[in-house]
Every structure is written in structure tokens, then in C-alpha cells.
Amino acid sequence: MAIRVQFWGAARTVTGSSHHLECAGRNILLDCGLFQGRRREAREINMNFALPPEEVSAIVLSHAHIDHSGNLPGFVREGYRGPIYATPATIDLCDPMLKDSAHVQESEVEFIRKRARRKLSIGRDGAIDQPVDPLYSTEDAAATIGLFRPMQLHERQALNGSTATEGFAVTPYGAGHMLGSTCVLMEGTENGKTTRVLFSGDVGRASLPIIKDPESAPAADYLIMESTYGNRLHQPIGPVKNKLAALIKRTVQRGGHIVMPAFAVGRSQQVVMMLHELIREKKIPELPVYLDSPLATSVTQVFEKHTEEWDAELAALAQQTTPFAWKHMIYTQTVQESKALNQMHVPFIVISASGMCEAGRVLHHLRNSISDPRNLILLTGYQAENTLGRRLERREPEVRIFGEWMRLRAEVDSIGELSGHADQKELLDWMEPVTKTLKKVFLVHGEPEAQQELKAEIEKRYRLPVEIPARGDQYVLE
Ligand SMILES: [Zn+2]
């Protein structure tokens, strides 16, 4: 016997990534992500960890996205004080991201409390949303940052509590999914026998702006792989810049402005860099560009700092100019600056979060823009079911913003080509070098349909056994 694995999060779903590995009495967690979904269900899941914090000797974090890192402060609140291993870029990204996540939860609780008080004051009974404590506070997020320990690409290190002959060692490889993202090779040694488990984290794609391409996967005995787009093929990335230029030019010619809802981390920076390139190449006019998201602004500074993560295109741009700063690039900070954009009467571009238009400053910009056919709403990523972003993508004739029904007259388009997740073909190609030594594949981080289709493809192409574990399922990896 060598390693025991229990799947705890992102099992038959795409959120709340977390898996428990045990070897020679050492317990570690791969990721500790926040489950995002309906409030009550999410709370229940996020408050239940695979095991008590005092029994966990180390956590290995694949990358900074909240569905992988966002429940770390919750575990710290429960009492976890051990190390969290991550790349230097991931550590720097987690600082603003976890604090922002805590702030979002504190605000949500404040909203629920206010609503409960209002219901009480007008004499209605029951129906008070419970409970009223945030999952974690900004103090918990700050305490989490102090537990991080850097891991360097391709460098093998024994984890806390393990020795050279017993327990776990980790070696990270670049995943090409976001700044700092990795897949990690976990080696568990017990009674002189070593078992290798490769955890894919989220697998990225070649040619994404800013970040390097995914690295070739190392040999392993077992593979735990994501399957987000296990049943889809993406549009090629190549033409996306020209498409962006054409959309902007058309909007400017008719005197409209452009609202780009974008995820604060990754997508916003990719869009800013592409706009700078297009302006320098004179493919679009020099109109003002606003990044209206304090989190995106903090994260851009992390992108500027971690030059080791940049691809050749960004490094070349940086030789000639400051990639994320130019005369007409404005990073707004205050709410007043954000609101002032509503009074602008010349064409401009505003990039703002959230990417699926569910919350945040982008809602104000949409309210101010969607009724005018001269304007363009340019979606930049995946839009989940039941989000305002999906309704805009579908061009529903009327949508509700801040409780008010509004006619959708603006043009809506999308540059979904920038997806950070490998599609079916890219996942199959990525795992190919590992298949020679693999005994079994476990699919995680995907909806059941995507997982079933990918499982069939892996079985057909590589003749390997594939499992699709549910939350709580355990396996012995020998
Ligand atoms: Zn991710």
C-alpha cells in the first residue's frame, strides 16, 4: 500500500477543488477551493472539510483561482497552522484575491443582516436568512498569507512532516492556465515503495496571451485530471486580436462605447495587453481605456512583477514599452471615478468585473449602456447558466439589472477564444506523455456530461481505466 486518496471537492462538478492524500500516516490536501453555488448549499459544503486541520501536515495549492484557493482562510479559521506550498506568483496573487474574497463574504453577510432587520421592522415573521457569520474574515485571509511557502518549478521538495524515505514530496510543472499555475507531481513513499500521483490542477492552452504554454507532463502511476471542457472544442486563439480590433473600430465609428465584463484575474490583464498592442500597431484608434476594478488593478501589479511567468510576446513588448501602462490607460480606484464614466460622451472602453455580470461595478456600466444600439457589450469568457452574462449572450430582449427591467439594444459579442482551460483535444494531447506509465485516470473538475465524454475518449485512445469519483469516494493507489 502506498497512497490513499479521497476526493472531496470538484467531484462531478467544476467548483470547490480539494483532494485528500494519505501516505505513511501523513495527510495532505491538494487545493482547498471555495465551492460556489446556491448560498445555503455552498455554505454547508464549505464548512465541511475532508479532515480536521490538526491532522493535515501540508497543503499543496495548484493555482490562485478562488475555486482552488478560496477556502484556505476557512481552514485557517478552523485552526490550520501548517504550510501551504505554492509558486511565488500564486502566493502574490492570493494576497489580494483571498482578502477580496473575505471582503465579498463580509459584505454578503451585512446584506443578509440588513434584510433580516428590515423584515423584522415591518413586522413579518420567520424568513430570516441564517446564519449570519461570514465563512471567514479579512483577518483569516491575512493569517493564511503568512502560511505560504514557495515551491519552484521542477524542484522536488519533501513536504512538512515527511522525510526522504517516508511521506510526500512535491514537484511542480507549469500548467499554462493562469499566472503561477501548476500541475503537481506528488510522490508518496511508504515501506520503501514510492507511488507517483500527477494532479493536473487546471490545464491551460498554448498561445494564450501573457503566460507560457503548458509544459510536458512528467511520468506518473496515477493521474487526477480536470475535465472542464471534456466535451468541447475551442475556437483557435490566433484570430482573436483582429476580431477585437474590428469590433472596436465598428463601435467607435458609430459613436458608441464598449463595456467589457472580465474576470479581474487573468482575463483583464490579457485584454489590457492586447489593446495596448492594437493601439501600438495602429489597428484601433487611441481611445481611453479604463480598468474599473480595484482587484484587477492589484492583480495587474502582480503580473508586472512576475516576469518569470511571461511568454515571449509579452517579454518582447516589455523591451519596447510598459505593457500595462500607457497615456490613455486609466486604472480607476474610487467609486466616484467609476461613476464619472457614465457622463462620458466620447468613445471609450471600460473593462470591469465580474466577468459573468453577476455583481460588481460592471453592473453600473451595463445599466448605462445596454439601451443604446451604438454601444457594444463584449463578453470575454465563459458565461454560466442563470447569469446576467448568459442572458446578454443569448440576446434576451429584456434583462433585469438592479431589479429594473431594461431593453437590450446594444450590440453583444463575445471573445470566448481566450478560455484558460484546455478543450477535449488539448486535454488528450496534454496527458499523452504520461499514458505509458499510467495505471488509472481519475477525472475531476467537470460536469458529468463533459466527464463521460472525456472518459470514453481516453478509454478509446489510450485504453486506460478511467474513474469519475463522487465527493467522499476513496481509492487505494498501489
Ligand atoms: Zn483555474
UniProtKB/TrEMBL annotation:
InterPro entries: Beta_Casp, MBL, Metallo-B-lactamas, RibonucZ/Hydroxyglut_hydro, RMMBL. Residues 268-392 form the Beta-Casp domain. The keyword Hydrolase applies. Residues 15-257 form the Metallo-beta-lactamase domain. SMART domains: Beta-Casp (SM01027), Lactamase_B (SM00849). GO terms for molecular function: hydrolase activity; RNA endonuclease activity. Keywords: Hydrolase. The keyword Hydrolase applies. It holds the Pfam family RMMBL. SUPFAM superfamilies: Metallo-hydrolase/oxidoreductase. PANTHER family: CLEAVAGE AND POLYADENYLATION SPECIFICITY FACTOR FAMILY MEMBER, INTEGRATOR COMPLEX SUBUNIT 11. This is MBL fold metallo-hydrolase.
